[in-house]
Specification:
By secondary structure, the protein is mostly helical. The chain contains 16 helices and two strands. The mean pLDDT is 84.
Length: 399
Amino acid sequence: MESIVAGSFFSFTLAILLLFLGKTALARYEVLRNYSIPEPVIGGFVCASVVAMVYFVLDIKITFDVGVRDALLLYFFAAMGLNADIKSLINGGKPLVILVALAAVYIVLQNVIGMSVAGAFGMDPRAGLMSGSVSLIGGVGTTLAWAPTFVEKLGIENAMELGIASNTIGLIFACVVGGPIAKFLMRKHGVKGDLNEQLDIGQSYSKTSEMVDSYSLLFAWLRLNLALMLGYGLDLGLSELGIELPLFVSCLIGGIMLGNRAYKILPKQHVEGGDRGLSLISDICLGMFIVMALMDLKVWELVGLVSYLSVVMSIQIVVSVLFAIFVVFRLMGKDYEATVICSGFGGITLGSTATAIANMTAVSKQHGAAHKAFIVVPLVCGFFVDILNAIAINFFIAL
């Protein structure tokens, strides 16, 4: 088999082209806008499909160097923090607690499903954890971290393959379920957003483009870099105290700290178009991150696990959607903010924090801003879920 590795410069350029492809398709086809399909998902899926076809038809494996992807995610979360209003955070206390509780319940439910299906297929039930919260709520990082334990201590030889394959399928569906969930809830319950509100990320599809000059973008870039520096410093300080958080969480907190003290740190922060520039940069960074994540999908790794994965992942996806519609929406307040949170729930339970935010961004561009949702969901995904998931995985392994 021939193997081709695309360099970082080519991969980054291709990601830009794919993002343009997604934006063009979204502008041309109304059905994509109606169901709030994220722009980067369209281009990313096209690339993943072509790469898979080349692999299976021509026996050529194409991989991409997407190392810059993680830096884009840090910029995105720093921008979210800068846009956050501390008053909204305080008011979001109750929704935050509720969503953490819902996440805890769902982690248990997800693992019960995985272990039950694995047992039904004659496998070690604990192997089902790799198709549960290890790979889905935990993501690829948690999968890589736990796989050696499953192989060496539990004797589950294909643990890595199970986890990566489950994460791949979960990521694909996490990118597309959010929009339809939001559309269903808004139609059924008659909730509406406010298109006149400034979006946390990107620009509403219904508004004409606002002019942003180079000075506005440069100022936004300065604020982002300062927030990243603060986030890196915070991460180092927490590590010294023995507290390990994902780096993007530290950058999010750094952005919040800087954004709410900026009047003293940057007394002229309200440069005309500055907030708009920040929104544009964060939109681009998120879009490029999602495109590159989908480009990097290795679909061929699913071969050999088709039967088990078809059953377990079908159940996981259906349960995730139903849980969002009938449980999360009701307990989060049955309003527009709850709708946007539900659109991101598939990202929380099936993909990653980035896919959750991508789904929420697509919905907010179509229907209006949801400021509280864009603070509550990242905090739950990036901090509380990791802690709860680690506790749950240890518990189920010990059974």
